[in-house]
Known about the structure:
The complex is a heterodimer of chains A (385) and B (130). By secondary structure, chain A is of the alpha/beta class. Chain A has two domains: 4-117 and 210-232, Thiolase/Chalcone synthase (Peroxisomal Thiolase, Chain A, domain 1), CATH 3.40.47; 140-207 and 235-383, Thiolase/Chalcone synthase (Peroxisomal Thiolase, Chain A, domain 1, 3-Layer(aba) Sandwich). Chain A is built from 15 helices and twelve strands. The longest helix of chain A is centred in the first third of the chain and has 16 residues, at 22-37. The two termini of chain A are 21 Å apart. By secondary structure, chain B is mainly beta. Chain B has two domains: 1-48; 49-130, CATH 2.40.50. Chain B has two helices and eight strands; from the N terminus they run ααββββββββ. In chain B, β7 and β8 (120-128) form a beta hairpin. Classes of the chains: A alpha/beta (385), B mainly beta (130). The A-B interface holds A 119-120, 122-123, 126, 132-140, 142-144, 146-148, 150-151, 154, 195-201, 243, 245-248, 252 and B 9, 13, 28-30, 36, 55-68, 70, 72-73, 75-77, 85-89, 95, 100, 111-112, 121, 123, 125. β5 (196-199) of chain A pairs antiparallel with β4 of chain B, so a sheet runs across the interface.
Amino acid sequence: MRKVAVIAIGYTKIKEHWNLSIRDLFTEAAITALNEAAIDRVDALYVGNMASGYCQHQEHLGALMADYMGLKSPPAVKIEAADASGGMALREGFQAVASGLHDFVVVGGVEKMSDVLTSDVTYAIAMGADQEYEAFIGATFAALSAMVKRIYQHKYHVSDELIATLPVHCHEMASKNPYAQYPFKITVEQVLSSPFVAEPLRLLECSSPGDGAAILILCPLEKARNFTDTPVEIAGVGAATDTIALYQRDDLTTFKAIIEAANMAYKMARVEPGEVDVAEIHDSFSITGIISLEDLGFFEKGEAAKAIYEGEVAPGGKIAVNTFGGLKARGHPAGATGIYQAVEIVKQLRGEAGKNQVDGAEIGLTQNVGGVGGTAIVHIFRRLR
Amino acid sequence: MSVPRYWREIPRRYRLIGSKCTNCGRTYFPPRNVCRECGSKRMEEVKLSERGKVITWAVIYDPPRGFEKYVPYIIAIVELDDGTRIMTQITDCEPDEIRIGTRVYAVFRKIREEGESGIIYYGYKFKPLQ
């Protein structure tokens, strides 16, 4: 297997892009990345997207985006795994380069959610749950996560105040990043006084949909220095699945797929959780992020929220988490999120992460989840000296 | 939703038909062809328990399309007395009457309707045992 590097990135701000279509968003981010890489060909394109079929009635995104990027007829395909679509697209691109099938691969994620009403966005996102036995009865992702929060708090006796520290942290990070959807600070009091979306989860504990596109360009590590002075190696990948229906799992306070994906990625990269300098985790809801921090091996079960409160996830702490604001404050354009996470880690490892730069960051991790743990994917990145 | 898609699920939604692994005895809702536990493909249909207890629950204030008029409503994961887990709405009670462990039983209810002339969806909900 060949080693694989990221040689260029591109991304848009996440917001409600009323004037841009889904193809405009994707090509804008792709052109930025292609200009940076200055490669003369693209061998394959992978487009991570969750809901274009519902939100735009547009499928066949692979061919559409290849066409509008002006590429010369490469193989191109949309990858869908709910809100892990971006992470899974990256995995596909990695595999294509690592296997020797392709040299220059573009992986992207795009989501355009402002084309439909909010109740339709909720419905579209719920398509990543079990349609016949969860969505049919009126369950939403917020409600599924709320049920996880309730039983987690019951088991570990973690207060609402402590759990609220994750969204507060994410907004603190986003306040220093103009590309985030919500670049402002919030307080624990504001979180706890925001309305319930699905009790016990409140509005400011929930990520929100947005429009955005993010791109990575990959090539074999041995060729990477021809295109950039700061290549970043993808040192480990891991992905796993679990029951798509939350109710079919025995333990609701841990996500088995995250643990399995992380173990695969750590093993492949020969990295221990304690060696990771900076991580982008999947905080689709406060509780999802907290469980992720534990299942990734950064903190003991029941301890993550306290660690956040004590500043251990801020730059300079034990491990810097969600320095782009996380899903909560960067925004959660579902199928693009996995690529936005990778973009931030690449920036951190290049030393280009601006005000939230982690000094001397060498090893970064991204963790992208589809649904309530039905899919999990972990990538580990390494700075090259 | 098309009529056949609704119609084919009726036994499960109206009568709680699940499946049981004839090898290890684990039960599932809805029915499966392969046991997740032991991998056996020898599964048989089984009528599941109509009573159980609440494992966890949430109260929905921000509903998906089609459920707006029911807000707020309760959904829960219930473990039936035969050990099968199911997701369901909890009905005929207020949210503050529910705890982890609350005993509930199955009732037949309207789930929602599809406009003026579309399908009316029915199925199970659960309510607290008094």
